[in-house]
Structure of WD40 repeat domain-containing protein:
Amino acid sequence: MRGEGFPGDGQAPLPDAVFLVTAGPEQVRDELARIPGPAVRLAHAVYRASAHLHGQAGPQSRRQLLALDAARFGDLGLSARIAAAPVGDGADMADTAWSVAWATGSTVDHRFRHALVGHSERVCSVATGLVEGRPVAVTCSSDDRTVRVWDLATGQPVGELPVGDSEVRAVATGVLRGRTVAVGGSRDGSVQVWDLATGHRLGDPLTGHTEVVATVATAVLDARLHAISGSRDGTVRIWDLTTCRLVGEALTGDNGPVQRLATAVMEGRPVVVVWSWDGTVRVWDLATRQPLGSFLADCAAGVPALATAQLDGRPVAVTGSQDGSVRVWDLATGQPVGEPLAGSTEAVYALATGSVQGRPVVVGGCMDGTVRVWDLAAGQPVGEPLAGHVDGVWAVATAVVDGRTVAVTGGNEDGEARVWDLSRARPVTGGPRGHTGEVRAVAAGQVDGRPVAVTSSRDGTVRVWDLAAGRPRAEPVISPPQPVDALATAVVDGRPAVLTGSWEAVVRVWDLATGRPLGEPLVGHTGQVQSLAVATLGGTAVALAGCRDATVLVWDLATRRPISAPLTGHYGSVGSVATAELEGRTVAVTGSLDTTVRLSDLACGTPVGSPLTGRIGLVNAMARTVATAQVEGRAVAVVGGWDATVQVWDLASREPVGKLHTLHTDWVQAVATGVVNGRPVAVSGSRDRTVRMWDLTDGWPLGSPLAFPGPVRALTLCQDGRLVVGFGWEVAVLTPQ
């Protein structure tokens, strides 16, 4: 292994880029863990950030992801060295066509340890335990109908538990006769028990509930392990796992379905804390099955979160709610302890408790995809929120791995569980902070002669980025009243402007230099604006907006008035709008969830020919996104579909050009066209976390796919060939070489 100096380190040489890219993952991790110093700590964080993606990938993909993650952590020098690392005998030169100019780092964190990748749908519950001395996590997804077991030290799968036809909604762990078992509550009302060492189910499912078992826990009662299950049928049942029998009558109340439950010890007695649908929290003595008290925690609608802990020697319950509040309650008195835990404004879906450096902590999973940690005694946040999930966090558990406290969190849309080291005290700074929600749209423009990128996010902000400097022009520039789904740039009244379309049925025009509105909004739609484009018609700048009401409105940007009646013909939401010059006239090319792509004459607002049709009469199953280009004198449309395909169409003949591209493995969420290194290209971004490029002249793919740590929802090609990509919460700018 060679070393290369790192400015300002002074402790140890950083492993060279070739070693990072080509060595085996375990060898790299061991070497980085051995070498001290801040530079190596940063390199280790970079390597961990996407190790679950590049660990099994080839060297080209690993190099590209490592270069991107180094930029996300703000080290453009390391990114450049990694991108320049040779990985073969020169045959891979076509794969080194892009370098990372810069990237945001909203979701990189030095506390991220690794991802547990295997579920294809939402992870709805997580539990942890020890199997033969090794810490494991048990995760379940009712949507993909699997329960999986993971080695927490390595992040590797251990196995999958048999569930039969059940959809397991909740899991817990315990120790039965010296062996760690998992308990699962199912949609069919049953409770299952598995031996985690063998992966086998213990006995038949336990039955008695009449509706979904939404929550389970374990407790030791009379020196025997018991499972406690709560159901939407409004009952809590106690099961002796030694005999696999129900203990006594079900615990019932008049408070509706059981949402969450947790166990605790109060005055030496095992108790169960039950949160019901109406917000009532009841405490039951597990031995006598008698209620010990109740209190009203929260009446807010939605699924609450519940955990228990010991605070200053007394048992407490911690509750999280739809309104983002997290409160601590004394179980003996039912009274709140101190003020609500500060910091969260989003719904809290899951809670767990643990101990970090001897202090009790609460870990909360939130709707916005963040994981928050609070010091339970002080009532204050510990560090910044952990970010990395692309959607809500529905499950949380804690464990101890190699003497360090970790949190295991389960995500919604990404289907990932993530492991975070809560004991890492020395932070590693990341790159420029950007959005705090999914990037929905990207556009390119110019301000004061400098190229800019404009991005919008589910966090409700629109940001304008200096493409060369890699920093926002302000924080943020534009503040629309609702999250923006569509963007387009134009020159309006002689000023550089951006048009925004959102959940409201209007299009707003903003001055890119000042962030202020330019004139009145463009009105006329009756539903959510989902797509935007601009064009020139007879020397006049016009704006086109596709809407959920299945229409496309066209406005004169100078007068703010419609130039024609709405374009019609679709009967589904118009999710994509583009324009093209076809046989001497300007046409709108629109893609809809009705599975068609239609052409309309912008001058008179009438249809041009019949819709584009493909296999079984559909255009790529669903026309998710459309872009247009001129290729060798002919107008073409590039259509990306929900069926993971990309097709190029000749707009004059209405015929496909070349073969159907099927290299993506999930929805194509964005397409763009442009010129890169002198040739016309199409670029497609997918939910499969890749970007692919196609030569529009011959239809061949160009190089290997570009991999990203999150789903790619938005992208654009700038006039100078730079590629701007929105993936997950992040924005990256890549430069062609």
